[in-house]
Amino acid sequence: MTGVAKQAEHAPEIEFWFEFGSNYSYLSVMRIEEEAGRHGIRIAWKPFLLGPIFRALGMENSPFVLQKEKGAYVQQDMARLCRKYGLAPWGKLGVLPLRIALLGCR
Which helix (H) or strand (E) holds 70? Predict the structure, then answer.
């Protein structure tokens, strides 16, 4: 094992829980690798789906869909934050591709 590989193996690790279709997860997903690398931290990627959590709380959809004003604000906020961090604009994904990707992670 090389010195670099050995060092990476013993680097501190954080669990990073993210939702594939979440706009705010997108902001973190797109920036965490670089930030963790700067501090010598490994990332344990932990995807999950918010839909089942929303349903367990009695919601049939995302709060951003259920509350129109909140949804409109989030769209403006995401555009602003993507510009701030130099990220490509966030776009919504369908549920099926997210579920397939999640299955591929297991």
Answer: helix 68-85
> Tokens 């397939």 correspond to what residue?
100
C-alpha 74 chain-centroid distance:
15
What single-letter amino acid sits at 82?
C
Q: pLDDT tens across 21-71, in order?
A: 788 888 999 999 999 999 999 999 998 888 888 889 998 877 777 788 888
Distance CA 46, CA 44 (A): 6
Both ends of the chain: CA-CA distance in Å? 27
For the chain, what is the radius of gyration of the CA atoms? 17
Distance in angstroms (rounded) separating the CA atoms of residues 71 and 37: 33
Inter-CA distances, 55 with 39, 61, 93, Å: 37, 8, 19
3-state SS class at 61: coil
